[in-house]
Design brief:
- This protein has 404 residues and is of the alpha+beta class.
- Helices cover 35% and strands 24% of the residues.
- The longest helix is centred in the C-terminal third of the chain and has 26 residues.
- Bound molecules: adenosine-5'-triphosphate (ATP) and pantothenoic acid.
- The site of pantothenoic acid has 12 residues, from β13 and β14.
- It comes from Clavelina lepadiformis (Light-bulb sea squirt).
- InterPro entries: ATPase_NBD (IPR043129), Type_II_PanK (IPR004567).
- This is Pantothenate kinase.
């Protein structure tokens, strides 16, 4: 939970505040006189430097006019080629090709939007790439959001002479959600989906397209390293209502600690083959099979997460897979509980879950969908978006120095 915060701390934010954090340099002022992304020189990037992952969104313009083609410097062509012809950068950078948005319209240009991520602790490698691939000869300012835009600002400036133009992470997130939802069905798929029959006992999910064109109000739950929960009243009006430090970073961190797994994908793979009931104490373990009927707690409900691990016998029986699954269930259910309370408190029906914790993670999606349905008697609905953790970076791309 967000501890020690007063109502005054929970401030309403407007998208027009997007450039409040900007510390303009003479150069950024010069470049943005016109107030339009279109007038920014290519390449167009949006950077979201999070607590665990950096997300980089790159707009690849198609169909440049002959004049623009002629003017396109050789180094710009090289950047375009490097980013669009590779799917891996160094040993840790990945381009999520399945998320590429083709032929989208941006400020009068048609182009493809590419989605790239790498671990935040590999920032040195990214900065080396910026130098080697001559990004810095073409742009001197990255539109950047996330806590790392503050943390790394000085390093970028002093080491590679690149400015980070800081944009608020939650403003970028909401702006990015809105933009991607409106542009992504060009690939023939619905960006927004719910989960069919989430109560089914297995971890497979069947996605059901959801029309997100008129979504307001909705609760947005961003599950990154930590979790932020926002009430979104309209595209330009939202507030952060609560959050929790028990997020994706907690799952991954504890899983590394307890199972010795090395990657997030391995942690999810372990969980896929685990049985959390070997680790958690259920209501049936306390009350017997019938559960605590007087207060509607079925025997299958978790009474105490990790509650069996005080017993040496149970510890011996629990596998790495069981522990990974119990961790995933624990963290997911806790987030689900905060989300449903927030939605009920504010009388909101739609709860949109985003963030990279949901990457390759159908188990959590199903659990969240089930929990929203179960705890609200069907009146609240969990929604998910295909581009999961990339909305902040998209918002940064759109929110150039002058606002867009
Ligand atoms: N390849 C990966 N490496 C590490 N974590 C991953 C990976 N893929 C998914 N995750 C999960 O996603 C989480 C990070 O999500 P996300 O990128 O949305 O947040 P962030 O921006 O880094 O964090 P925050 O917003 O709290 O600063 C990790 O904590 C982990 O649970
Ligand atoms: C600190 C941020 C906003 C960084 O993205 C995120 O990790 C978060 O919302 N953490 C939870 C903080 C809290 O509300 O307890």
């Amino acid at each position: 939970m967000t501890h020690g915060k007063t109502d005054e701390d929970i401030s309403n934010t407007h998208l027009s505040d997007i450039s409040q954090e900007n510390q303009e340099t003479p150069e950024t002022r010069r470049r943005c006189r016109t107030g339009s992304l279109k007038k920014q020189p290519f390449p167009w990037f949006g950077l979201d430097i999070g607590g665990t992952l950096v997300k980089l969104v790159y707009f690849e313009p198609l169909f440049l006019t002959p004049d623009e083609e002629k003017k396109e410097e050789e180094s710009l062509k090289q950047i375009r080629k490097y980013l669009t012809s590779n799917t891996a950068y160094g040993t840790t950078g990945v381009r999520d090709t399945h998320l590429e948005l083709k032929n989208i319209d941006l400020e009068g240009y048609k182009g493809n939007l590419h989605f790239i991520r790498f671990p935040t602790d590999q920032m040195e490698v990214f900065m080396k790439m910026v130098i080697e691939k001559q990004f810095a000869t073409l742009i001197d300012t990255f539109q950047a959001t996330g806590g790392g835009s503050y943390k790394f600002e000085e390093k970028f400036h002093s080491e590679i002479n690149v400015h980070l133009n800081k944009l608020d992470e939650l403003v970028c997130l909401i702006k990015g959600i809105n933009f991607v939802d409106r542009h992504s069905d060009m690939n023939g798929e619905s960006e927004c989906f719910s989960i069919q029959n989430p109560s089914l006992g297995n971890d497979q999910i069947v996605k059901e397209p959801f029309d997100f064109r008129n979504p307001y109000p909705y609760v947005a739950v961003n599950i990154g390293s930590g979790v932020s929960i926002m009430l979104v009243n309209s595209e330009n009006d939202f507030s952060r209502i609560t959050g929790t430090s028990l997020g994706g970073g907690t799952f991954f961190g504890l899983c590394c600690l307890l199972t010795k797994c090395k990657t997030f994908d391995d942690a999810i793979e372990l969980a896929t083959h685990g049985d959390s009931t070997k680790v958690d104490k259920l209501v049936s373990d306390i009350y017997g099979e019938s559960g605590y009927t007087k207060f509607g707690l079925a025997g299958s409900v978790v009474a105490s997460s990790f509650g069996k691990m005080n017993s040496a016998e149970h510890r011996e029986q629990a596998t790495r897979q069981d522990i990974a699954k119990a961790l995933l269930v624990t963290i997911t259910n806790n987030i689900g509980s905060l989300a449903i309370n927030a939605a009920i408190q504010h009388g909101v029906e739609r709860i949109v879950f985003v963030g990279n914790f949901l990457r390759v993670n159908p188990i959590s999606m199903r659990l969240l969908a089930y929990a929203m349905h179960y705890w609200s008697n069907g009146s609240q609905k969990a929604l998910f978006l295909e581009h999961e953790g990339y909305f902040g970076a998209v918002g940064a791309l759109l929110g150039n120095v002058c606002g867009s």
